Prior knowledge:
By secondary structure, the protein is an alpha/beta fold. It contains eight helices and twelve strands. Helices cover 30% and strands 19% of the residues.
Amino acid sequence: MKDSMPRRYFMSYATANDDPSYARDFSNFKSLRRRNPGPATVEVYIAVSEVTPRTPRDNQRLRQLRRLIESSRSFKVKSIRFKSNEGRDLSSIKQNLLDIARVGSPDDFAFFANRSAFGPRTKRWYDQFISQIEKFPESGLCGNTINRPCPDESDHTYKLHVQTYAFLTRLKHFEEFMTSMPGENASTREEAIQDGELELSRRILAKGLALTSLAWPEHRFTSEGEDIDPELPCGNMTMTPGLGHIFAKLPYSHWHDTQKARRVRWNSILTTARFGKNRLVRYLRKEGADEVSWP
């Protein structure tokens, strides 16, 4: 990484080619370009997990996606690269991180999102992440939301961690992950959560850094646990209304790991303006979803 350079602002975006229309990605970036992020230029790096063999249709749609993103003066696409599906979004984070680190400086900011992150709902959203992480100088990660374990929760899925569908960090805090990214070899969603998402926060905390989030802007969390307010809600915060976060997490269910996912017409079901919440949930259940969540 370079030092003593003007501050730059990066965005890493992770997606996959299991939907040949890339409908969710178009929807996400249409929403992003409607609201000024704050910085004059956000440099975008996109990693595409190759779930199915790459086709000319993929190349065409990604060229169209690039044109859509760059129709906003706030975004400049620097890279769109395919990668193996091994490690899912965690290996996508690593790939984009390596590309960003070649041109970035230690104090530059990088915002990471995957296609589950829909929003933002406010202007200057990138600046809000920066303000929050600078509010607590020892913070290593600022998430849109933090998953806090419940006092009586025995399930290790709910250990304290930043949820990785949308978060911001400084590049210097991620240097060690350029060689070893938690979860980069995950082959299942469960492995990606346990060995990836949770381990990422554990390693940040182990370095003496803190976690914070837009959902709870007055709090930061350390390995000592001294700032865990017992009045704070626990569990999956993407399901909790009325918090300060500015991205919604689009629904996910286990059928994404089945062949059925390839037969779902995302163009039809992900546009809530056409479907509405209740109709969308009914459709997902009809298509075989075991469980449907909505932020």
